[in-house]
Amino acid sequence: xxxxxxxxxxxxxxxxxxxxxxxxxxxxxxxxxxxxxxxxxxxxxxxxxxxxxxxxxxxxxxxxxxxxxxxxxxxxxxxxxxxxxxxxxxxxxxxxxx
Length: 98
Prior knowledge:
- The chain is mainly β and 98 residues long.
- The protein has no helices and four strands.
- A hairpin with a 7-residue loop joins β3 and β4 (74-82).
């Protein structure tokens, strides 16, 4: 209970900084230049794909945990967010077709 996408401070206000990933193609959004792909981690990365910013963390993930001594019963706990994102960077670096 009480989960939030942006964590709160001890005063109950949203945290001022909560980092997320961003991807950059040769420094230009949506371009596959000779510089290849680069990743960034922060919360202010202009010019790249930030996968929706804080929304990239996705929705709450419900996980089942076995109860010790419970004869195979389990308890569902929500302690993470989950989002599966496509990798915009080609394997092995830049894959230009010539």
